[in-house]
Amino acid sequence: MSSSDMSRDMSTTGMGAGSDVSGEPRSNWPLFEVFLRSKRGLNHVHVGSLHAADATMALHHARDLYTRRNEGVSIWVVKAADITASSPDEKDPFFAPSGDKVYRHPTFYEIPQSVPHI
Amino acid sequence: MTGPGAESGPGPQVGPWPETGARPLQEGIGPVQPGLGALTSGTGVAADAGGLEQHFEETIARDRRIEPRDWMPDAYRKTMIRQIAQHAHSEIIGMQPEGNWVTRAPSLRRKAILLAKVQDEAGHGLYLYSAVETLGADRADLTDRLITGRQKYSSIFNYPTLTFADVGVIGWLVDGAAICNQVPLCRSSYGPYARAMIRICKEESFHQRQGYELLMTMMRGTSAQREMVQDATNRWWWPSLMMFGPPDGQSPNTEQSMRWRIKRHTNDDLRQRFVDMTVPQAEALGVTLPDPELRWNAERDHYDFGEIDWSEFKRVIGGNGPCNAQRIAARRAAHEGGAWVREAAAAHAAKVAARAEAAA
Ligand SMILES: [Fe+2]
Ligand SMILES: [Fe+2]
After folding, report:
1. B69 — pLDDT class (breaks 50, 70, 90)
2. Which of B29, B123, B213 sits opposite A111 (nearest CB)?
3. ipTM for this model
4. What residues in B contact A112, CB-CB < 8 Å?
5. What is the pLDDT of residue B254?
6. Which ligand lies nearest the alpha carbon of B153?
7. Rounded distance between C-alpha atoms, residue A95 and residue A91, angstroms
8. A28-84: what fold?
9. What is the pTM of this model?
10. B195, B206, B329: residue with CB nearest A6
């Protein structure tokens, strides 16, 4: 494809679900489904999916994508194609990177009572 | 329509979401066989097309969610794919204007906040790509459509971030408008989209508040800093109003989308709601919104505001905004520059798998 495609004027964006771009390379990273245990005592719950080269990478990506605010204490990733579960190390340090980032939460910011809807 | 802060208003609903575990984010493993599953296994053998359509319509009428393996009309699937893909692209491209200031943030605190915010936007894009794949779309194909200009993203991200005040104004106005748009989408009829929106809305409140707090800090600073905030507000106000899309009279798909409960409010309704919410915030901040016609209308119980320059909107969405080419070029460069990493990781995974197989 040429670089002139970049800024060309497109009037519509219609596309069909089955429509296809011939000859374009497809991602060869398989799709994984992600399951989170949000806290001890609860079941793993499906939260979404992601692509990764393998299960280990899928776990790390799932940690970064689905547990940035301590939403999980344990993750399962299952290759969507064959539904095989792999269990992560349930050690706390795996989730440590999000532990000290309190500024990711809205309550970290002081806004006067007089400011509405924020 | 009700005023700001009413029961259905965006403000009060954003903050107090329950913990993730208390909310059934996704109940099944529906997405495992997108598309195909919907047509072959999810529907029952004897049902004819009319029966399927009736079941679909009844599900919508009862305000239940449509799930990936359900039968759905082709037009519904296409509309959902287009809307979710454009939304995903917007989150991904939306990292660039603010990412522009990560290395130049004025303190470590602001840098860490900005990094976290930009990382969240990447996450939002990925939640949404995940949702759109449940409809049979292919992620690599969607990226290709974005970098070849065949699918759009929100026009707002084609404007430049000229000063650090822009980072604050984006959080306040752009994320504020996004919240207005997104809160009703948490009840969108397509389950995976609605669930992605719930996750996203939980994170947007941080985005808006960090921006507003940044601006409050600058407004307490020097007069030069206050001028920066006013200047950034002047530049972002009108493009923010355009984020809600064309006026209702020129939005032909709105009616069908409302009937399918993909959308819950019209573009003009949401725009009015945003104006009503934002005016008192501007007053509290001490900035002027750049619209001489902006005034409270007691009869309507809303703020009146001036005419939007729709020719600018058309020009920017058509590819001719200040930064369109730059945004796409950066996305393309990241995609192409990352190709060797994706290939190497795939080769490594194949080698490890082969070794494990040989050892077994
Ligand atoms: Fe976002
Ligand atoms: Fe955001």
Report:
1. confident
2. B213
3. 0.79
4. 284
5. 85
6. 1
7. 8
8. Ubiquitin-like (UB roll) (3.10.20)
9. 0.80
10. B329
